[in-house]
């Protein structure tokens, strides 16, 4: 057992779903009964969606002409939305972990597209997009949730630049003028539940979606980005959204603005990650999995342990002490812990976590 004085005040370090603050739950309770359990086509819920859209636009300093679009299904659904509604003929994908690979696989399965171009790196390293003839969509994660690798984002000439920002958005800086679709789900930095995708779309992406939707390509309504755009302009989704998810998201956005906006939230995650990586570099039995410091994620930290440590036992022992969701990504198969350090996580709690690990292994 770990002495209470060593423990973090909040022991949730999940990489998604992530820590939900108590104030968010109170905000959700305040929405009942006026919003919760009411029609998603009436003013109370439409107003909630509009407030979320406007708050996101403010947080990301949305460039002129860009729109905040919402849809159902989470980021994994948006891969299929992009396959149907944004890739015209061929895409290029940077793959350096599980989630970038899944988007590339979705494009490869589409019978109406050419085989994608894939630029791949081994887990723990980064891969970069590169201009290529015949490619009309360039896609990469900003942060690979499975491995804890993050990459800089710059527009690639010759096509739309599409960024999977599910674990990056809200905890890492971004210049939206460099991208055409910046999409994410709210269960990580935004401390809400899953089941919703949010995409910040450039005029070029909006034009592409409209052109493909009006052509002869068959696109299911649920994957038709133009339909999502049309509904989002009315502050609604095609089908009924989870109102509680939107309520938690609204409360977190208010907290993020009060915490210094995107810059303040990114600085908070950077503080947390510097404590984790600094501890691992000083440790006799741990080290950052991502060897190149410039590639290390500020929001998802992956820490390898040497053979003298059973990381699975360590995660189980932490969980028994109320410190949860430090297990590694299941398919990576490493002797490792994975630590979520989204803005809601207190940097002091990250320091306390490292003390608890040292205590267990002393």
TrEMBL record:
Origin superkingdom: Bacteria
GO MF terms held by the record: alanine-glyoxylate transaminase activity; L-serine-pyruvate transaminase activity; O-phospho-L-serine:2-oxoglutarate aminotransferase activity
EC number of the protein: 2.6.1.52
Record domain Aminotransferase class V: where: 133-324
UniProt keywords, alphabetically: Amino-acid biosynthesis, Aminotransferase, Cytoplasm, Pyridoxal phosphate, Pyridoxine biosynthesis, Serine biosynthesis, Transferase
Matches recorded under Pfam families: Aminotran_5
GO biological process, one term: glycine biosynthetic process, by transamination of glyoxylate
Catalytic activity: O-phospho-L-serine + 2-oxoglutarate = 3-phosphooxypyruvate + L-glutamate; 4-(phosphooxy)-L-threonine + 2-oxoglutarate = (R)-3-hydroxy-2-oxo-4-phosphooxybutanoate + L-glutamate
Pathway as given in its UniProt record: Amino-acid biosynthesis; L-serine biosynthesis; L-serine from 3-phospho-D-glycerate: step 2/3
Cofactors (names): pyridoxal 5'-phosphate
Stated role: Catalyzes the reversible conversion of 3-phosphohydroxypyruvate to phosphoserine and of 3-hydroxy-2-oxo-4-phosphonooxybutanoate to phosphohydroxythreonine.
Record family assignment: Belongs to the class-V pyridoxal-phosphate-dependent aminotransferase family. SerC subfamily.
Protein name (Swiss-Prot/TrEMBL): phosphoserine transaminase
Native source species: Metallococcus carri
Lineage: Bacteria, Bacillati, Actinomycetota, Actinomycetes, Micrococcales
């Amino acid at each position: 057992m770990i002495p209470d004085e060593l423990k973090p005040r909040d022991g949730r370090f999940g990489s998604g779903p992530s820590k939900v603050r108590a104030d968010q739950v109170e905000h959700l309770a305040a929405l009942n009964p006026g919003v919760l359990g009411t029609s998603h086509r009436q003013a109370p819920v439409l107003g909630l969606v509009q407030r979320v859209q406007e708050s996101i636009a403010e947080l990301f300093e949305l460039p002129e002409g860009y729109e905040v679009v919402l849809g159902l299904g989470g980021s994994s659904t948006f891969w299929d939305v992009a396959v149907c509604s944004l890739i015209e003929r061929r895409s290029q994908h940077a793959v350096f972990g599980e989630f970038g690979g899944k988007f590339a696989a979705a494009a490869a399965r589409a019978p109406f597209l050419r085989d994608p171009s894939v630029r791949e790196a081994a887990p723990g390293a980064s891969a970069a997009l590169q201009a290529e003839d015949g490619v009309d969509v360039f896609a990469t994660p900003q942060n690979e949730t499975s491995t804890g690798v993050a990459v800089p984002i710059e527009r690639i000439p010759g096509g739309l630049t599409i960024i999977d920002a599910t674990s990056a958005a809200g905890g890492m800086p971004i210049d939206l003028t460099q991208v055409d679709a910046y999409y994410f789900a709210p269960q990580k930095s935004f401390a809400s539940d899953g089941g919703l995708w949010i995409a910040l779309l450039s005029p070029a992406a909006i034009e592409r979606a409209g052109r493909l939707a009006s052509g002869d390509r068959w696109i299911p309504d649920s994957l038709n980005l133009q339909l999502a755009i049309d509904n989002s302009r009315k502050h609604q989704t095609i089908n009924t959204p989870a109102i509680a998810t939107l309520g938690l998201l609204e409360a977190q956005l208010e907290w993020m603005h009060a915490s210094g906006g995107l810059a303040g939230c990114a600085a908070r995650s950077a503080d947390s990650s510097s404590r984790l990586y600094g501890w691992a570099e000083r440790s006799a039995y741990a080290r950052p999995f991502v060897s190149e410091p410039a590639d290390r994620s500020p929001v998802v930290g992956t820490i390898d342990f040497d053979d003298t440590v059973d990381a699975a036992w360590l995660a189980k022992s932490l969980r028994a002490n109320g410190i949860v969701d430090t297990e590694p990504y299941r398919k990576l198969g490493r002797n490792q812990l994975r630590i979520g350090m989204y803005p809601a996580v207190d940097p002091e709690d990250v320091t306390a976590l490292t003390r608890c690990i040292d205590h267990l292994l002393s």
